[in-house]
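Open question from group meeting: does this chain pack into something compact, or does most of it stay loose? Before anyone orders reagents, we agreed to write out a predicted structure and look at it together. Recording both the input and the output here so the notebook holds the full record.
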Amino acid sequence: MEIEQSFTVPYPREAVWASFHDTPSIVACLPGASLSAPPEGNRLKLAMTVKLGPIVASFAGDGEMTLDDAAWRGSVSGGGVDRKSASRVKGEASFSLEGSKPGETRVDVKVDYSIAGSLAQFSRGGIVKELATRMTAEFAANLKARLDQQASQAAAPASEAEPVSPPAPRAKPAAADTVAQAAMPAIIAPTHAPGPSSPAPANAPLNLGTMFWKILWSRLCSVFGVGARR
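Structure tokens returned:
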């Protein structure tokens, strides 16, 4: 089954594309996903935990991520198996970045996947498209949060470099040296997110049960013409 989604983030295309080169961070933006080992080139050890009521499926498998810098596009492909439920999933997610407006980037995502086993019921009908829409929205929110964090970290050294207290008296040069040494780590500290040398921490499970009931309630409200209530 193929699913296409798009979302925008309020950052220039160069900044968004740079974040896609930080593989562990990008994987961590996807609900329920994580890396079980550091990347080896383009090769990935992927893990995905999905919760559906009392069923918890933990998929583990291999994947590959490719990036085309010239075309601002890439893809992630792979598959995994959950030994407890005997469910299997295989698919590929391709993405491309468009600088739709100054300081704004549109990310187009296309997913082609297949799933078998006890979770295969969610690969049938229109409900899977609504689930994909919500997953994409959460991924977009996580990506924006990471970009916000990187932007604030990049701006921090400039403010930290400004004097926040009167200079030490000339009669005590040792104190001035101490202040300079204390400020040095803040100035030279890296302002970018951790590189792909270590896997990102495991993400919270993707709770399909919660998403299912939200979608069902939304559909009932639309059928009976009432607004969804929290």
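Observations to bring back to the group:
Residues 127-161 form the longest helix (35 residues).
Confidence is low (pLDDT under 50) at residues 171-202.
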